[in-house]
């Protein structure tokens, strides 16, 4: 059985795409900075650790600012 389960993660994040994006960014940050937010992790890999942070509520998805216009959107 996978930990954390996809069902528990979907309760914290609105879409699978957002979940993948959040976890990958946090995994990269952990790898580069060696910054850990939980005292103990079940997973050995950075992506698993990032997903554990989402499951515990330590890592949350911030809403995007709808007023921001990027260069490629003009």
From TrEMBL:
This is DNA-directed RNA polymerase subunit omega. GO terms for cellular component: DNA-directed RNA polymerase complex. One of its GO terms (molecular function) is DNA-directed RNA polymerase activity. Transmembrane segments: none annotated. It comes from Chryseomicrobium palamuruense. The keyword Transferase applies. Promotes RNA polymerase assembly. Latches the N- and C-terminal regions of the beta' subunit thereby facilitating its interaction with the beta and alpha subunits. Pfam families: RNA_pol_Rpb6. Belongs to the RNA polymerase subunit omega family. SMART domains: RNA_pol_Rpb6. HAMAP family: RNApol_bact_RpoZ. Keywords: DNA-directed RNA polymerase, Nucleotidyltransferase, Transcription, Transferase. The keyword Transferase applies. Its EC number is 2.7.7.6. NCBIfam families: rpoZ. It catalyses: RNA(n) + a ribonucleoside 5'-triphosphate = RNA(n+1) + diphosphate. SUPFAM superfamilies: RPB6/omega subunit-like. The RNAP catalytic core consists of 2 alpha, 1 beta, 1 beta' and 1 omega subunit. When a sigma factor is associated with the core the holoenzyme is formed, which can initiate transcription.
